[in-house]
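cron nightly-structures :: item 1 of 1
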Amino acid sequence: MHDVARAAGVSIKTVSRVLNDERYVREDKRQRVQAAVKHLNYQPNMAARTLSGSKSYLLAFLAPVGARQYVDTLLRGVLTTCQKSGYHTVVEFYDSQASDLVDKVRALCVRARPDGAVLGPGICDSPAVIALLDELGIAHVGISPRESLPSAYVYMDDVMAAHDMTNHLLSLGHREIAFIGRRAGWRFAERRLEGFRLAMSYAGLSVPPQFVADGTFSYRSGQECAEALLALKHRPTALVAVNDDMAIGAMTGAYRLGLVIPRDLSITGFDDSYVAEITWPQLTTVRQPIEAMSATAAQHILRPATGPDGAAPGILMPYEIVIRGTTGKPPA
């Protein structure tokens, strides 16, 4: 750091502020320090930084099991943000319904001593986990909690997104629409089902109980749900899937039964993961800013902000309905 300071013509404190991505550094000084760091190929020693201060320079990502593509994208946002700020990421997967959840999180915190934690969906809905992190003084931000949190959280309007996607199907003439991926205890699944029901209700349509199928957010689960629904005597003409993985599985289930998409069955997903574009037909889906959500959560831990009333903010992220090839008019 002394070498960097000399090369940039600034103080050690300024070098430290730039390396820690702190505010209140003049832009010309920041650029000089960054140029010196690049020229000298300076790499901060994580162990030395930890010993010399109270920070561990570690951020924990507490990820839920299941919904693999979604979680992978969340992880990418956390990793990218940490790398830019000189932090490393500790990743652990947890079953949010497990009886030993709090014990496992406590063990991680004692072992790794993270400076903060990004809590994935389901994990951030545990009051006991939130209380533990508060007790240990570990800053945390939740992603898509079931309800508003007293601490900061990042979310998108799952209700309106599912409502708008269902309206897309209704505008094409579908009336027999089913939902696959209900799962109790998962906020985003419950909220998306709520939006689906809302759109159907506004259209004056009832949803038969058998048209709402439970699922585990996986490809196989989507296939099984679709095959069960399509085996009904009175089967749906369109499926709203809770995520892209289940939607792609549903497409496979339809093909196994000899159906053509979207001629015989329309299918929609949620997330706009990479599989939405590599399948054929390409998947109509809700583009959720997944990576931006987790990046925003990590950024808030590294650079905390408060709302206008001094409270921790709930940060709303936008969504987009992406129309592709898996939706069309219902069969005649």
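cron nightly-structures :: done
The chain has a mean pLDDT of 89.
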